[in-house]
């Protein structure tokens, strides 16, 4: 019990720390994906973070956080892994 209390207090003592994915991003087109980052779940986040960088002609470069449970995100991850294995990944 005391260990749980200490862990909770330690988590609360982190100043300015919050989950980057407080909102989930929109449905995306695979062709607009520039970069895909999969970050592990932090102690203060409910889920792992999937951050995608998109490029569109109108809006330029934007970053969105995706919900890992959505079907579209699962398809994107599968597509990205295949794409990466073929050596076609654009990375800065």
From TrEMBL:
One biological process term in Gene Ontology: immune response
Superkingdom of origin: Eukaryota
Assigned keywords, A-Z: Cytokine
Domain Chemokine interleukin-8-like: 18-80
A Pfam family this chain is assigned to: IL8
GO MF, one annotated term: chemokine activity
Name by which UniProt lists this protein: C-X-C motif chemokine ligand 14
GO cellular component terms listed in the entry, alphabetical order: extracellular space
């Amino acid at each position: 019990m005391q260990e749980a209390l200490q862990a909770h207090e330690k988590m609360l003592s982190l100043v300015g720390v919050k989950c980057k994915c407080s909102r989930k991003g929109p449905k995306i087109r695979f062709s607009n994906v520039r970069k895909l980052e999969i970050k592990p779940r932090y102690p203060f986040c409910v889920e792992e973070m999937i951050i995608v960088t998109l490029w569109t002609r109108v809006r330029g470069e934007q970053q969105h956080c995706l919900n890992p449970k959505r079907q579209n995100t699962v398809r994107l991850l599968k597509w990205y892994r295949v794409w990466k294995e073929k050596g076609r990944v654009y990375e800065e």
